[in-house]
UniProtKB/TrEMBL annotation:
PANTHER family: BILIVERDIN REDUCTASE A (PTHR43377:SF1)
One Gene Ontology term of the molecular function aspect: nucleotide binding
Gene3D superfamilies: Dihydrodipicolinate Reductase, domain 2 (3.30.360.10), NAD(P)-binding Rossmann-like Domain (3.40.50.720)
Gfo/Idh/MocA-like oxidoreductase N-terminal domain ranges (all copies): 15-133
Descriptive protein name: Gfo/Idh/MocA-like oxidoreductase N-terminal domain-containing protein
Length: 372
């Protein structure tokens, strides 16, 4: 549902359509958009560029379900590329439409109360929801998380993250991935970064600390989140980096996820006589980290959703995970607005965070194509 990106010549590689066309378990059945002009343009693009024609076009999900049902074809998975309001609308109708899964574009919602309701539906009805925070789907990123949780770098000591683009629009990418590593976020504190967000001055960069519970070690760990000015200034390219340091080694995910550095803790070459250990880069990166795996985020995201449906498991970025990831970003905005005051999680007021950072919410609406 929703064809905005593909209408604007967005590469197929990063589209829901590409994921559906590439997966051998799925058949590309319908495209849906209320704008008939855009719908026809994308219809012709898919037929021309991909050479397929065995699909139909509709202006609403209701008409698609009814039309396909008349032909004896059921819609099992709906991919939503039209923003938070459509995400909520589709998830609330999954039972009536007999849907098995919903693959949603980010952000998940613009209201924590809405998010809580959608998480409840996900859990009570059993529909599988996948939110498109891409690194949660990527084989390499997930392998790094599993390696750390399984003790690959020993006891986890520190975690540092870099992000760029605005705390509300971009930081949830970071907190969504960290939700796979940690068990829950406990509190946050943040201050406004001196580095402006050149994409949108109203959605500030915020430096802060997120305190997590880490069950494998039965303790709490602070994660530093730092806004960075590195990257391409002209279009303010999204940038994410992670550094995980343990007692046996350090793993750094660099270059927006396309580079990896693996270091091993060894006696210091300068202060080794004092028993000090230092991380030194190793040429041998453990195979478990899957650094050579293809980076096919959308394809992997759909495959992960299908596996969750087939095995009745949780997706890599379920409604629950996305809700919590977005809550952390809004909590950081609250903390910065209150001069770095520690904010406990979960937030008690389900709407305060969003009202407190309305400019950032307006940016999310703009990026999602919501005019109101």
């Amino acid at each position: 549902m929703g064809v905005e990106n593909m209408f604007e010549d967005f590469p197929f590689t990063y589209s829901f359509a590409e994921a559906a066309l590439r997966n051998p378990k799925t058949r590309f059945a319908v495209i849906i958009d209320a704008d008939k002009y855009k719908l026809e343009a994308v219809n012709m693009r898919i037929r021309t560029e991909r050479g397929i024609s065995d699909f139909h076009t509709y202006t609403s999900l209701e008409s698609a379900v009814k039309g396909e049902g008349t032909d004896g074809r059921m819609i099992d998975i709906v991919c939503c590329a039209a923003g938070p309001q459509v995400n909520a609308e589709v998830i609330r109708k999954v039972k009536g439409f007999c849907l098995c899964g919903v693959y949603c574009e980010k952000p998940f919602t613009l209201s924590l109360s809405d998010a809580d309701d959608l998480v409840r539906i996900e859990q009570e009805i059993g529909v599988k929801v996948q939110i498109n925070y891409l690194r949660n789907h990527d084989q390499h990123h997930r392998a790094v998380i599993d390696y750390i949780r399984n003790g690959g770098i020993g006891d986890l000591l520190t975690v540092r993250t870099l992000y760029k683009g605005g705390v509300l629009a971009v930081f949830p990418h970071t907190s969504a991935l960290l939700s796979l590593l940690f068990d829950k976020a406990i509190s946050v504190s943040g201050v406004y970064s001196p580095l402006l967000n050149t994409r949108c001055l109203e959605d500030p960069n915020i430096d802060g600390v997120v305190r997590y519970c880490f069950a494998p070690q039965n303790r709490e760990i602070n994660v530093s989140a730092t806004a960075t000015g590195r990257g391409e200034i002209e279009n303010n390219t999204y940038l994410y980096e992670f550094e995980f340091t343990g007692t046996k080694g350090r793993i750094s995910i660099l270059e927006n996820g396309w580079g990896t550095r693996y270091e091993v803790m060894e006696p210091s070459r300068v202060f080794g006589s004092l028993g000090l250990l230092m991380p030194y880069e190793s040429r041998r990166i453990p195979l478990e980290l899957k650094t050579d795996s293809p980076r096919e985020f959308m394809v992997d995201g759909l495959e992960n959703l299908i596996c969750a449906i087939e095995n009745n498991g949780e997706t890599a970025c379920s409604a629950r995970r996305a809700r919590d990831a977005e809550e952390i970003a809004h909590a950081l905005a609250i903390s910065a607005a209150q001069n770095g005051m520690c904010v406990e999680l979960p937030l008690k007021d389900r709407d305060h965070a969003f009202a407190n950072a309305q400019a950032g919410v307006n940016l999310l609406k703009k990026e999602a194509g919501i005019k109101s």
